[in-house]
């Protein structure tokens, strides 16, 4: 009698789930220019050279009404009505005074917001939920941080 040998290969497949990449926040802090050029004399030009830039990371426009930006001390800017940030577009929040537009809005302060040595910027949505933050400690020769 002939015996047929049947070889059965057992193949085990391991599926390893890779850690999920955190999705970019809808509104992301991309730059803080915390030390405006020249002496800090509180001129409007100097105040406006201090700013934070935000990026809409989505493929849709976002109405920024009610969104806030604040520093660690608690100075808070709240976006008003009619600020629509287009998809993949940036907007710069300047510390001084000026006329709001599509590329820049103004805090309308007469004093600086961002500390020259270290600080943290926070962005919150209209419900008050944290969306993004960026901290910095000044390094020699740098007046800004890219987040």
UniProtKB/TrEMBL annotation:
Domain LTD: from-to ranges: 18-138
Keyword Cell inner membrane: no
Name used for this protein in its record: Lamin Tail Domain
UniProt-listed InterPro entries: Lamin_tail_dom (IPR001322), Lamin_tail_dom_sf (IPR036415)
Keyword Disulfide bond tagged: no
Organism, scientific name: Nonomuraea solani
Keywords: Signal
Residues in the signal sequence: 1-22
UniProt cross-references to Pfam families, sorted A to Z: LTD
